[in-house]
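Issue: copy button drops trailing tokens. Both records pasted manually instead:
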Amino acid sequence: MRTKMKTYRRIILTLTGLSLLLNLIAFSKGFCDWYTDHIYPFIADGLGRLTGALPFCLTDYLIIGALLGGLLLSVLLILLIFLRRKPKYRRFTAICFRTALMILVCVLTLETFNWLIPLRGSVLGQNAVSKQEYTIGDMRTALNLITEELNSAVYAVGRGENGRLLYPSHADTEQRVFQAMQDFSAEYPRLAGYYPPVKACVYSDVLEWMGIGGYTNPLTMELTKNKYLTRLYEPVLIAHESAHHQGYYKESEANFLSYMALRASDDAFLRYAALIELYFTVAEPFYEAVEAECEARELTAADYLAELELIMPDQRMWEDLNNSYQEKEEVYQADSHPLESLTETAEQIAEVGWSTQAAVLQEYNYEGDFVLVMEYLSGEMNDGTKDAA
């Protein structure tokens, strides 16, 4: 018994010490980048291949296990108040809590290896992004470029006789996205390599209520998606989670890479999906800046926008978006939702989660993709590499 306890303590102390040491070293972005480039792929791809071979989403069942385990430990702790004089019950409770501690330490160790170190590296592994402020003129130039490409893409995608978009199958979309990410590795080398399949979450209704499109689990390296995504957003979400798997864990990085990799693809549907997201990424801060400028100059928005000669998206894009939301709603309504009573609770938890994430990641949160996009497009136009539309 003493030998087992010594071994248990040794494992706990070793894993805890290793995690603490690595987190201390990870204050060096250089170390984090080196680790993500040379060590992380072996762990991520190894786990990804194992869990990717499973016909179900292991993450879903681990979440159930964690909830049930937490409930069990709470009950055991309450019962201990009344049964503390029973030696057998105390020993049983101690074993349960030691097991829980071992699981927790192993989880924190894996989180360190598979998430915390890559997350703390430099932006895009290149540390090349500036803190430059962009003027309305800069944003207008980028927005016009994106809109020109978007208005070409809207007529390049496949359509049925009724004019509605023809979507590839889910499996086909996934493979096209993986290929686009691989092709973009010429600019961002980490994108080369293995991509695990993206699995639909069993609890997609809960993700939907929480406003979550998908997530990457660092413990299993499974890529998970909300099955109620619009078909127009699905390629971008798959690309986003795939970027996480390749070690780009900042949300701004994953957004940026998903947009640009799909935009560079030869596939018309992927390009269209990415350009729609790119348009809104630049349009939202642009219109916020325009509103502030109009107030300062006492101009109407219409007059100022006419002065800027802004190119507007083709009406077909708005129709495609509306159709995609209607189709999503039909899919959602066709399913039963036994947990629907938890909708409000899920929304409240999500609100706290999103605000906490934004506070922790700061400029690397989702909205940080704007700076990365502007930096990339500015360089592209300044280098003269973009042909006129």
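Record 2 (pasted manually too):
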Amino acid sequence: MNEQQQTLHLPPCLNQCAVREMLGHGAFSLIQPGDAWVIDAQAVSQCDGSGAAFVWTFRSQILACGGTCELRDVPEVLARQLDAYRVACERVATDTEAHVPSPPKEGWITALGRSTCEKVSDFAGALAFLGEVILTLSLICSHHFRKADALLAFVRCGVQAVPVVSLIGFLLGLILAFQSAVPLQMFGAEGFVGGLVGIALVRELGLIITAILMAGRTASAFAAELGTMKVNEEIDALETMGLKPVRFLVLPRVVAGTLALPLLSLFATASGLVGGWFVMHIFGFSVTYFVDQLQSFVSFGDLLGSECKAIVFGFTVATVGCRFGLMAGRDAGAVGSATTSAVVTGIVLLAVLEGVFSVIFYAMGW
């Protein structure tokens, strides 16, 4: 295409009004690909920022269209402003973040206040979720309760956990008996190993080890299942149909976890007692002696108190797992973080509840 040279004569006063007048004449519409332009600035005696911006933009658009643009007789007042535009454009081109102001640094008081508000909000949300779960428990005896889902969850978190719980309980009783028999043997009191192992397993260790195992096995599974459902938008589909996730997803799992932990703690305690008897047998004590020791040191009230704690622990572990599963984000990393948080929070709450129950039982003389 042949270049057509055109000349733009700038007025003596190049300000906002003059630019508006030139735009009204359609100066920008004359730009065509391949045009050759000459901007005559000889008459310019006054120029503000609007005028300099007009000249810079006009020239840039001509060059962008593949044309040429020559500036003639540029006065000093316009040259200074055009040079400032050039320096600014070069700075932006070399550092894209030069024009972005850095965010103000957060002070420690602001950070503390923000963190406190977040923790209070999370605590309020956890209380609201706990209240909703407790209210939903009234549907257990109704036809709205999904018994098949609860049975499936019970098999997964209860029945399938019996082998590993029994193994850990047996090893725990074995280790506890061996470690206590060594110092007691120094005083000729190794015959009390059975009673010591029985009290420790029935009242505390059998339950707390089973609860921690359930927190790592069941709470993580619940969090991962519900988190994956949230990633796949299955929970959103339930809410769209007007169905509450707590009733259809959380309630069966909470009921299964609450019923499974007391039974699992019995298996762990029984296996631990077998391990303790094995050590007593090595030291030459009969089964009858071991049973008599258990009857002397362990009462039915100890077992009843342990089972009461097991119900609360099972409810806590299952609820925490479901809570973090519903709070998970919508990617794989968020599901993993929710699973980890469910396990850690569950174990911490178990320790807190164990301390609370210890104080209550001590006050009751139990």
